[in-house]
Amino acid sequence: MDYQPRIVDSELDTLFSGLPAISLEGAKGVGKTATAEQRVTATIALDSRTTRRSVDAEPEIVLTRPTPLLIDEWQLVPEVWDVVRRAVDRDRTPGRYLLTGSALPPPTARIHSGAGRIIRLLMRPMTLPERGVCSPTVSLTELLAGGRLQISGRCALKLPDYAQEILASGFPGIRQDPADLRASTIDSYIDELLDRDVPELGAVRRPQALRAWLTAYAAATATMTSYSRILDAATPGESDKPARSTVDAYRATLQRVWLLDPLPAWIPVFNPLTRLSQAPKHHLVDPAIAGRLLGTTIDSLLMADGPYETRREDTLLGALFESLATLTLRVLAQPLRANVCHLRTQRGEHEIDIIVERADHKVLALEVKLTSAPTVSDARHLNWLQEQLGDALIDKVIICTGEYAYRQEDGTAIVPLGLLGP
Predict the structure, then answer these.
(1) Cβ burial, residue 303 (10 Å; 0-12/13-18/19+)
(2) Same domain membership, residue 234 and residue 154
(3) How many domains does the chain have?
(4) What is the CA radius of gyration of the chain?
(5) Are residues 94 and 226 in the same domain?
């Protein structure tokens, strides 16, 4: 299969051309190996049992291979991290080592942080432009630059297309499967993670309890539902619930394999907003995984009759559409060194789905609406934020499922998700 270019490519090329070692990290199957292989002359694949035994016996053997060298799934032999770190200390020639990892090593692995020697770079699933299903006309780079960007463009994607893309996944290997078999592929992916990969990390003794908790977490996608309520949803009618320390271990372990990807709350600097919630919004790494855990289909999403409630006014499709939009903004913002968060006042009077913050702390505010025709009322929280921040607000945007990109009368940019690009 031909390599599918990724937005992270340019960022990786910039870093690798000037630095000796990069660690490309992210969930299993996100495409790290294929991306890294475009830039190396040799590969050490530690997911091969034979190779792993050799490297485990003598980690320094990796230094005998030509560079640029890819060390794939390095966390399976954590000692190679320190081998590379020491090699970088001796020789800082750029572009020598690429490491990929689908999990952080266990806490018992005594490795150096690698700070200043090995730069970490996160890779997330593909956005709609990377999937080749749309042609963006609105640039996040230009929106963040300010100056009231002219907004235009026409999007061919309709609501059923977005539902299709939510369930089709942003993982390259899943997308290449026939559409009628993708659900089985995602099931296998979830089984592999929960029944083998996660238990190997040593933190989970009851995989079925973990699966129930993860399913309840998926049902809370795009909300700030408390962890106690998620636990209650995972254990209905059970008096012997997992202890809080066990649930904390679930969360920590699932984040170590990048399956959970919560969106942090915005903590503003140098502005009058102080009474804000600090709870994260719940998201899985790919909304397709959330959809599959909840047993959804395209028909159930469009008919709003899925088997789980998301504990919000919107439908499950609305929650998963917001999760897809959040994934898109995070991927697009990463090369720009912009911070992506959400905003909610403590009492819930005002909420902004996505805040993209520049290094100078000026922000772009975005609301996500599952509608083809946003109204001025849909921008009320954005207009409130504009009153609070003044010139610190770069622009305000509503992400929607409509056909056209334009500005409405209050200045808010209306942008179909399929038209948003780098």
Answers:
(1) exposed
(2) yes
(3) 2
(4) 22
(5) no
pLDDT band of residue 307 (cuts 50, 70, 90) is very low
Whether residues 304 and 222 share a domain: the answer is yes
Q: What is the DSSP string of 16-29?
A: HHH-SEEEEE-STT
- Whether 84 and 100 have beta carbons less than 8 Å apart is answered as no
pLDDT at residue 305 above 50?
Answer: no
Residues 153, 159, 160, 166, Cα dihedral to 10°: 90
Q: What is the pLDDT at residue 161?
A: 96
153 plus 50 within the same structural domain: no
Q: Are residues 43 and 173 in the same domain?
A: no
How far apart, in Å, do the first and last CA atoms of the chain sit? 25
**Cα–Cα distance for residue pair 197/257, rounded to 1 Å:** 9
CATH of residue 32's domain is 3.40.50.300
Q: Are strands 363-368 and 393-400 parallel, antiparallel or unpaired?
A: parallel
Close Cβ partners of 154 (under 8 Å, ≥ 6 residues apart): 137, 403, 404, 405, 419
Question: Residues 346, 331: one domain?
Answer: yes
Residue 349 structure tokens: 């009077």
Would you say 59 and 76 are in contact if contact means Cβ atoms under 8 Å apart?
no
Tell which of 89, 105, 122 closes a domain.
122
pLDDT band (50, 70, 90) for residue 306: very low
SS3 label, residue 383? helix
pLDDT digits (tens, 9 = 90+) for 335-374: 999 999 999 998 889 999 999 999 999 999 999 999 999 9
Fill in the DSSP letter of residue 272: S
168 and 223: one domain? Answer: yes
**Gap between the Cα atoms of 275 and 355, Å rounded:** 16
User: Please, what is the Cα angle at 87 between 81 and 92, to 5 degrees?
Assistant: 115
3 lies in some domain: no
Name the CA dihedral angle for 338, 320, 322, 249, rounded to a multiple of 10 degrees. Answer: -50
**Domain span including residue 383:** 128-421
